[in-house]
Amino acid sequence: MPTNKQKSIVIIAGEASGDAHAARMLTELKQLSPNYNVKGIGGDKMRAAGVETFVDFSELAVMGLVEVLKRYRSLKKIFNRTVALLKAEQPDLLILVDYPGFNLKLAKEAKALGIKVLYYISPKVWAWRAGRVKTINKCVDHMAVLFPFEVPIYKDAAVPVTCVGHPLVDAVKKELTTEQAKAKLDIKTDQHVLGLFPGSRRSEVDVLLPIMIEAAEHLSQKIDNLTVVVPLATGLDKAVLEPIIVKSSLAIKLVDDDFYQLTTACDAIVAASGTVTLEIALLAVPHFISYRVSPVSYAILSRFVKIPYVGLCNIVTGDNIVLELLQNEVTAERFEQELFSLLTDKHSKEKAERIRQQVLSALGPAGGAKNMADLVVSILDENG
């Protein structure tokens, strides 16, 4: 059980998925004991869970090696500010959520300051940069991983590790039919609803959304009663999406409501690679995955990546169950072709349900957020 003395935690989440995972864990932690002072980097979900954020994660959200280099100065300022906070606060625990390029460097600084480090959501060392395990061994006190297959990687490297399970196993529940979800969004049930999910980083949106919209415009000439929706991802401002959307001849709905309700209302989705693709799969919505970064970034990444997939559904199942369109395959013509197939194939939803079952069986134990909160408490109690 937690001690009565108030403990100090700093938690760092550099993107939307990390903000959501951290918030779920912190909500569970609050149920165990409200006696924690939590500061960090995050977004609206972490703030709603009681975190005092000193930087919004949107200032860190960038994808691709070249893209990171362009933002180096601003990222370095945030890093230095975070190190200064650690020196001043000397928290009982630093929790780092994914975002390894930033967080592993921060772990080194924390270790030098004598601050205990818990890393939540493993860097993809099984995909590329396996050498990071050596860094983790030196500067991370405990790894909390989402997937069972990650445990042996850290045990073999003598890194204390716990598989807490993926929070989405509990968080994502298909509670509505497609028709019920459409009705809640005031969309007629005879409409074909197409979801364009361009990601939560501005760099992703700028690249993918115009191509997605062009494909939807072509598709609207082939499929009657087509409604196109775009979710407003956590951490993104409408001002990023609206200038792209208004250029279209389609009446695209930018939706800032319940994300799972919107996703369930879709008959087909094209989505940027990321955690969102797991959520779509767990809601049994027909979809495919897209991913494109600068040619230089991709050329560098391709030399080091050790696995054949980028989509989490394919990675966790070890099978190509969801189509991935990468780099040069990311074209309006190809998107249109695949979306037309998803919207017109009468077996699309049956296939999506089979994918849901496969993903669920591969995700490991339930209770991920609660398991993580229990681990935080046990580590803090070890400190006394």
Summarize the structure.
This protein is α/β, with parallel strands linked by helices. Helix content is 48%, strand content 16%.
Kindly provide the radius of gyration, computed on alpha-carbon positions and rounded to a whole number of angstroms. Answer: 21 Å
Q: What fraction of the residues are assigned to beta strands by DSSP? A: 15-25%
Strand order of the largest sheet: 3-2-1-4-5-6-7
CATH architecture group name of the largest domain? 3-Layer(aba) Sandwich
Spans where pLDDT lies below 50 across 5 or more residues: none
Give a topology summary.
Elements: E1 7-13, H1 16-32, E2 36-42, H2 44-48, E3 52-56, H3 65-70, H4 72-89, E4 93-97, H5 100-112, E5 117-120, H6 132-139, E6 142-145, H7 151-156, E7 161-163, H8 168-171, H9 178-184, E8 192-197, H10 202-220, E9 226-231, H11 238-245, E10 253-255, H12 259-265, E11 268-272, H13 275-282, E12 287-291, H14 295-304, H15 312-317, E13 324-326, H16 332-344, H17 348-362, H18 368-383
Parallel strand pairs: 1-2, 1-4, 2-3, 4-5, 5-6, 6-7, 8-9, 8-11, 9-10, 11-12, 12-13
Characterization of this structure:
This protein folds into 2 domains: 7-166 and 365-383, 3-Layer(aba) Sandwich (Rossmann fold); 173-362, Rossmann fold (3-Layer(aba) Sandwich), CATH 3.40.50. By secondary structure, it is an alpha/beta fold. The protein has helices at 16-32, 44-48, 65-70, 72-89, 100-112, 132-139, 151-156, 168-171, 178-184, 202-220, 238-245, 259-265, 275-282, 295-304, 312-317, 332-344, 348-362, 368-383; strands at residues 7-13, 36-42, 52-56, 93-97, 117-120, 142-145, 161-163, 192-197, 226-231, 253-255, 268-272, 287-291, 324-326. β11, α13 and β12 form a beta-alpha-beta unit. The protein contains 18 helices and 13 strands. The longest helix has 19 residues, at 202-220.
